[in-house]
Structures are given as C-alpha cells and as structure tokens.
Amino acid sequence: MARFTDKTALVTGAGSGLGRATALLLAREGAAVACVDLFGETAEKTAAEISAGGGRAFPGEANVADQNACRTAVADAVAAFGHLDVLCNVAGTGKFSHTLDLELGAWQTALDVNLTGTFLMCQAALPHILEVGGSIVNTASIAGLRGQAYAAAYCASKGGVVLLTKALAVEYAKQGIRVNCVCPGGINTPLIPAGFIPPEGAEADLIFRASAASPRMAEPDEVANTIAFLASDEASFVNGTALVVDGCTLH
Ligand SMILES: NC(=O)c1ccc[n+]([C@@H]2O[C@H](COP(=O)([O-])OP(=O)(O)OC[C@H]3O[C@@H](n4cnc5c(N)ncnc54)[C@H](O)[C@@H]3O)[C@@H](O)[C@H]2O)c1
C-alpha cells in the first residue's frame, strides 16, 4: 500500500518519538518528507534514515514557537518539493508540576510550543495545503479532552489544539481541505521519562486514572498509523475530528 505516492509532507517533531515514526511511515508509503525539529541533528538522522531506505526527505531545524522559523520551514519544503499536500504537527513538550509550583515561564513554554506552534505551522502551510486540497493532522492528547492532575499547562495547550483543529476544519471545509487531530494516551517515547513523572508528593494514580482502561502504553507506530490514516485519502470524509488513540477510550 502506498497512500502517499507523489505526495509531499512536512512533519514537525520529526527527530524523535511519534514525529519520527510518522515521518518514516509517510516516506515508506511514498511521500517526500520535510523532517523538521527543534534539534536539527535529530531531524537530519530521520531524513538520512528515509534517504537510506530509498525515500525522499530533507531535514529542517525550526522552533515551531517562532513565526519566522515556521514560515521558513514551509517555504523550504515547498521550494524542495514544489507543493505541500500534508502537514503533520507532532512537535510538543510537557512536564508535570503542582499548579502552585508552575512557573509562568513553564506555562508559557507549553502554550507557545504545543498550541501557538501548531497554529503558526497551520497558518504558514494553509495557503499551500489549500492550493492542492491537502490535509493537516495535529497532535493533541487525551489530556486535551479531560483533566489530568499536575498538568494544567499541558491540558490547556492540548485542549486548545483540539478546538484549533475543529475551528480550522469548519472554516476551510468548503475549500476542500481537511484538518483533524489525534488524541493519544500514553506513548512509549522519550517525552515520558523527560517530563511525565509525577512531581514529588503527587499521587501517580491521579495522573493515570483516566487511562485506567488502557491495557498498556502505545508504541509510536501505532499512533503514527492513525496520523497517516487521517492524512490520507482513506479519510476523505473525516474532517474536524479528535481521534482518540489510547487503547480503550473513556472519552
Ligand atoms: N508520549 C506520550 O505519551 C504522548 C501522549 C499524548 C500526546 N503526545 C504528544 O505527541 C507529540 C510527540 O511527542 P513524543 O511523545 O513523540 O515526544 P518526543 O519528546 O519523543 O518528541 C517530541 C519532538 O518534538 C520536538 N520539539 C519540542 N519542542 C519543539 C519546538 N519548539 N519546535 C520544534 N520541535 C520541537 C522535540 O525536539 C522532539 O523531537 C507531542 O505533541 C506530545 O505532546 C505524547
């Protein structure tokens, strides 16, 4: 199956975890992929892996919270590939903290990267996506659908991604493009050890209770498969959805 033959894609967060898995999958299915990450060397590794497998890719270093960097990343992709069919906003960050200890800077970083970064990439890519009738897939979280203890900034940012997605879907539906998002539960990626550890004195149970029905963590490929489905023509009549990928949803 090659759902992305002759298609081009830009994937943010492509240097690690879910973004890397998404970039590799889209490339395996025929897409030329711009692999964008805050850390250029990780983006380079993903792009090199795609090229080594016979695919077409190039790396880009960009902070999605920076409007000019987003515009440049999109312009570079269009210059390299000629057009842009698919945008996958996967870059994200998150840390657990008691709300009383949550510093304004940490709140702002979560909002800047997860929500504003998704908006800025969508805004930069939309003219090109509209030109070809393409598709955008954003990455929210089950933490964007329900409260999660010690994750005020993360929940607020991911809830924003869900409604940003729905707003864009409604605004542009009649112009022939689709905008969806995935809401993963726990995925086995470096994000978990990096930030998703209960703060001292917190109840771990409070964090995971809402996912209690899920039998296990997901592997990145399992969520990448869902992103690829939403990005592909197989999802031609799916627009504005927030698709939960958490093993057994309670949402
Ligand atoms: N891991 C989980 O359990 C889980 C659950 C639900 C949602 N998510 C979401 O999935 C997405 C991918 O996370 P992951 O688990 O693969 O984590 P990860 O840490 O493995 O990957 C995140 C990638 O985003 C990049 N990134 C971070 N800030 C950036 C910025 N400002 N500009 C550009 N790139 C930036 C990082 O460098 C990294 O390569 C995130 O949006 C995350 O919130 C993860």
How would you portray this structure in words?
With 251 residues, the chain is α/β, with parallel strands linked by helices. It has one domain (8-244): Rossmann fold (3-Layer(aba) Sandwich), CATH 3.40.50.720. The protein is built from eight helices and seven strands. A seven-stranded parallel sheet has the order 3-2-1-4-5-6-7, sandwiched between helices. Helix 2 (40-52) links the parallel strand 2 and strand 3 (56-61). Helix 1 (17-28) runs parallel beside helix 2, helix 1 (17-28) crosses helix 8 (220-231) and helix 3 packs parallel to helix 4. The longest helix is centred in the middle third of the chain and has 29 residues, at 104-132. The protein is globular, with a radius of gyration of 17 Å. Nicotinamide-adenine-dinucleotide binds next to helix 1, helix 4 and helix 6.
